[in-house]
Amino acid sequence: MVPSHSKESDVDMKDPQTLIGLLQTELSTTNHEVMLLTLELEQRVAERMAQLSETNAELVKEIAERRRAEEEVKQLNRDLQQRAGLLEAANEELETFSYSVSHDLRAPLRHILGYATMLHEEANPALGEKSQQHLTRIKQSATKMSTLIDELLHFSRFSHVELNRESVDLNAIVDSVIRDHNAEVQGRNVVWKHTQLPGAWGDVALLRQVVVNLISNALKYSRLSNPAEIEISVLENDSGETVFFVRDNGVGFDSQHADKLFGVFQRLHKESEFEGTGVGLASVRRIVARHGGKTWADGEVGRGATFYFSLPRS
After folding, report:
1. DSSP per residue over 4-26, as a string?
2. Residue 235 CB: number of other CB atoms within 10 A?
3. Which residue has the higher pLDDT, 208 or 45?
4. In angstroms, rounded to a whole number, what is the distance separating the alpha carbons of residues 190 and 188?
5. Cα gap 225→152, rounded to integer Å
6. Which letter does DSSP use for residue 242 in this model?
7. What whole-number percentage of the chain has pLDDT above 70?
């Protein structure tokens, strides 16, 4: 069956003018839509360009601020390096001066001590009791000064001696130091607690001095305790260093003064209470620092103290 067409439709399709009119109308509509789309697109592009321009301005500002910050950091690093250089030079000069002075003072002190001893022996019968006391004090002071000079020379040596790094068995060092001290503490009730220690990488002689000084310190300040408990162990941690400690149950100290303990000739107790020069812990800090480690302490008056030192893991 052939589909039928209306007469009007046939006329429209056959009339060129009508067809042209329809096409023009359709084209006009299409152009209007294209224009609207173009305007919308231009508006979107303008908005996007504005956003990009704002973002770019913020980025330029951020880059400028970052460059300023980087320049400030560089300047701070330059200042820090300069100050570190000045500090290192000052320390070297001070240590050289200390070594020189200490070395030069030894001879006069020996003379003072020698003459005081001779005078005490030769003129003793003719001296009164008060004069003998004065001579005794001169000898004691000269002896004390000689000890201080020796300690200062040792401290200076720890700063200058070349490090001979190798694998160090700290367990063997601790066992040896304990054996040496056992002869000195006969008659005292001392309980040693020594756990297995990991190895270290450093100078054997200097690390032994660290152990000697810390154990000697623990023994000295726990001599009034019965029993005296001294623990040598290690802290478990996930950092790149090993933390060792020596703990005692002695007289302890006020923790707010902990850092003072590591200063040269610094003491928290009177010499009449506990003998010493105040150089041992300073030497510990210097040796550990030269190995790239740190030292610190905590304690409580009447409840003991713990001294820590860290070493980079080998």
Report:
1. P--HHHHHHHH-HHHHHHHHHHH
2. 11
3. 208
4. 6
5. 30
6. E
7. 86
Please report, rounded to a whole number, the percentage of residues in the chain having pLDDT higher than 90: 22
Q: Give the pLDDT confidence of 198-229 residue by residue, as tens digits.
A: 988 999 999 999 999 999 989 988 888 889 89
Residue type, 190: V
Single-letter amino acid code for the residue at 41: L
- Euclidean distance between CA atoms 249 and 190, whole angstroms: 11
pTM for this prediction: 0.62
β-pairing, 295-300 vs 228-235, is unpaired
Residue 250: other Cβ atoms inside 10 A? 24
Reduced to 3 states (helix: H, G, I; strand: E, B; else coil), residue 271 is coil
DSSP string, 270-298: -TTTS---S-HHHHHHHHHHHTT--EEEE
Q: What share of the chain is helix, strand, coil (3-state, %, to 5)?
A: 65, 15, 20
Residue 229's alpha-carbon distances to 179, 222, 273, in angstroms, are: 16, 8, 20
- Residue 301 pLDDT greater than 70, yes or no: yes
Q: How far is CA 69 from CA 63, 75, 78, 187, 193, in A?
A: 10, 10, 14, 65, 52
Prior bond of 227 cis (ω within 30°): yes
Contact 233, 270 (CB under 8 A): no
Determine how many CB atoms are found less than 10 A away from the CB of residue 138: 17
Q: Are 199 and 168 in contact (CB under 8 A)?
A: yes
Nearest to 110 by CA among 150, 71, 70: 150
Cα dihedral 262/266/268/272 (nearest 10) = 130
Amino acid at residue number 176: S
Query: What tokens appear for 144 in the block?
Result: 């004390």
Tokens 């790239």 correspond to what residue? 292
What are 229's two structure tokens?
Answer: 């408990």
Residue type at 128 in one-letter notation: G
- 278 near 264, Cβ under 8 Å? yes
Radius of gyration of the chain (CA): 43
Q: In sequence order, which residues have a C-beta less than 8 Å from that of residue 206 and are 6 or more positions away? A: 158, 161, 163, 287, 290, 291
Handedness of CA 112, 100, 207, 253 (dihedral sign): positive
